[in-house]
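step 4 of 6: structure.
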Amino acid sequence: SYDLTQPPSVSVSPGQTASVTCSGDKLRNKYVSWYQQRPGQSPVMVIYQDKRRPSGIPERFSGSNSGNTATLTISGTQAVDEADYYCQAWDGITVVFGGGTELTVL
Amino acid sequence: QLHLQESGPGLMKPSETLSLTCTVSGGSISGSDYYWGWLRQPPGKGLEWIGSISYTATTYFNPSLKSRVSISVDTSKNQFSLQLNSVIAADTAIYYCARHAQMPHEYNFFDPWGQGILVTVSS
């Protein structure tokens, strides 16, 4: 089965840039989506097809995918961005999610 | 704006069959290129895809759950449903429904999601 690996946690200071990574074998050959899940809430898609941002998602959210790693970047991180972030891809047979990264803004 | 709402029992006993329904409002489940999916999240853990269905009842399932899962669609009610057989404690989770866009293409994604429903399996 195909695995997506995320760091369990990332910390960032308010106003700084946060990077959340998602690693998988030849991930560049797949399309990655990212979801934000605030405590007690359902997930919200923040990036799809590697780098596209849905309407209503702030411009500070961006995505990239190269080599074996996809990256969600949050520029000028705000306290409201504190949440769990999950990457997702399709391995040709099934949907695969990363284990999730807890982003702490402190 | 599209809205999805899960409904069903919150407590089940081992070996029972879980049945959940997702009601879609603000848009039609029919005549579109979208699929409609079920996902789950055990308490404190990550996300897992269960399966998805089109309005024409074409289905895709997670191989790890396929033997116990069925998904159906009722276009007249704008609903789709999940059945999970022979539940065990490990099936305790928040169950979400979501629109599964761009299936079965490789660039598929889930948006939006329902609020989720906690299902607890306990004797």
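step 5 of 6: annotate
 - The CA atoms of residues 30 and 55 of chain B lie 5 Å apart.
 - The radius of gyration of chain B is 14 Å.
step 6 of 6: archive
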